[in-house]
């Protein structure tokens, strides 16, 4: 059956409703924090702001703490409520989502560290256009995935899944042009390598956002579409499935 | 998650009621309707119970799951107010057919009740009760069957020193396993369990559940329970009944992670309908 | 005991009624035990001299206050001279009161008690020359012992030599054998007569304090006591002996003396027979009503009727028993099988069988109701458990249901026994006798004589208490008999309770 964001607040046990609601709220808070981390890391890079980069790196601890806290809550719900069906899927999706969000946080702090290195070296802004472009794309994916999670929006989630393909191709193109830079100007190899790391991190963030979107499909439809080629996904069939 | 046994061929179906392959099914219920003094208790039920599997019937009180279970070994015969329509077939044979003797049917389809009900006699005599009704066994053979049944019910080691004691001296959990042993002694093909652990403490409950799983290799089990976790723990297939109708019937894994219908979902997750 | 829960007058009222009931029960038992048991106590004898110079010896009894002053009742015995064994004396008229150790009270076969002195002994009509008091007592004891041995020998002779030959004679056809048997019988009878002659040799010479003398054959003496000379253990022994004789002997002197053995035997036998009759009928009826019958309006009606039958006054059952059993069935039986004895009835008059049947009918509702309740308490899943194993309804009933209901059936029997043992009214119509010293069981075929009349403790109380000429002598017997009746019912009930407990212990409590 289809479930909505209201589904989890109809239990006979009000306490249970509240616990599940808190899980979702805390996950959204963590998502918000992670999204901000990504955004600030990219800003620090583009504007050469090493202080901002430093703050992003230090904030990663907060993200880790939130993961542990939400996982604890999930464990408690599993142990005390033995949830079934959509409740079980919600808890599982939240556990998986925190893990992906934590990885996104890690990638953001990786970007911040590379941004610090680039700011210190102070030379050039080769590849920044690609970084800006891909980062905007990826941040939208993360935002959409979280929105889909919050609203149990299967259409939005499937959009994110397909978006990831676009990011992957953009990433391949960007890498190719950065290779060209390195061949043209061997002195820029160090800085371009850093940019390449950053692009790789952004691509990974896109993958994690894709995972988040897949969890939404699992949560709402009970379908596991991980490890399925997005091209082979029959969106209409998924949406129709009751 | 349970280790899913090699599933009997299930015809791929989008329907909320799965279709067990007739060759792999032991009991077949077709269009079964039942009423107590005119009040309908079951309406037009159709499902197949797979052989050598545990099938659980769940649903709220008064949904008809116990009524269905009792229909399977014709316990309703005693009640003149019960009217029935539809067919129940055991291994292809209609159990209400005139050539089927009810006593013989009940030996083939054993039943264990909610409250442990050992008879007022010794442990040994309880297990030998069904054998004595059949007659024809020498004492040696009977001893062997009693031991086998008690071992199958995982009770032998606890009672072998005191087979002559009253069955009522056993604990509740032991009594229930004794009742299962008593039923096993007549070598049934199907074992019906009507909330077999609802009167027991958690440890005894686990022992009964373990026993149910271990008996799967010998016979087909049908379990009625209020306890959804129990159904999830021990059964291979689960049928959800509501208001005398079969709402959803699916492999247990599927039913408890992703039920097809909102009525099922609401029941197993504890929501208001 | 725990503190009374809850405050207020209700708790006190409830507790108060319990206390009052207990008190009344205890008082009842104490009265019965006190009055009944004291009857057998060898109380002291006194010798009284009145202001007019007359003397008498007696056992003092109760006192009453009247307008003339305090009067005391004395048991004087010696009815043949005094006319009555009781005498009221104004205490003020007593000049002297002594307790001579040599005063004896003799319980005689006829004429009641004698109170006075032993003046001497006679053998074959010749007085023995023994002056010494102690030696006289030794000689008396010796002779009493010898008499007891002779009596025993005579009874054995009658039992073993005389009776078998009488019976054999009745059955024997052959003339030669008859002659031989008759000879042997004559020889045995002669032996008995010889023994009786020896028993009649000894006589004791008694003298009352007024100076009347009496030579009493020792054979007439049932007991001879010198209470004033007895030590406490001796008194206890004498008390036990009298109590035992009360239990083991038949009644004498129009039920005002002697024992109640036939009544005990009759009561117990009656109750046992009644149980044997009522148990199968009651249990089967209950099983039919609860397990087999269709639970419809008719069954309910039958059930209500049965319950109401329990409230019908017992005398009504007596009338029914008299009309149907005694006159109806008994009369027909007599016409068919005992016509040679008519017009004297065999079964056409009250007897043990009809009394048992009447009591069985009386207690049937109790047994049915108790058994039915026991059956109803057995959970349905017990029956279904047996059915689910392929048992038929009969097998289920026999192997599971009835064994589980046994304690309840016994409870029904306990209630039935308690009710039946205390019933007197219906028995008066269907077979109880004022005096039937022959118990209904003996060595004569068919050993159990169902047509005989019998004695009953309850009726015995009624008879002794209200129909005896000597009220003063009867009253202690009434108390003693009442106590005994309570005891008999208690023993019968305890037996059933023990049986029920034993059954319950075998299987523990009923699982719920």
Automatic annotation (TrEMBL), chain A:
It is found in: Cytoplasm. Signal peptide: none annotated. SUPFAM superfamilies: PhoU-like. Residues 28-114, 131-216 form the PhoU domain. Keywords: Cytoplasm, Phosphate transport, Transport. The keyword Transport applies. Plays a role in the regulation of phosphate uptake. Homodimer. Belongs to the PhoU family. This is Phosphate-specific transport system accessory protein PhoU. It comes from Franzmannia qiaohouensis. The gene is phoU.
Automatic annotation (TrEMBL), chain C:
It is found in: Cell inner membrane; Cell membrane. The chain crosses the membrane at residues 260-289, 309-330, 350-370, 400-421, 477-499. Its main location: membrane. InterPro entries: MetI-like, MetI-like_sf, Phosphate_PstA. It is a multi-pass membrane protein. It comes from the Bacteria. The keyword 4Fe-4S does not apply. This is Phosphate transport system permease protein PstA.
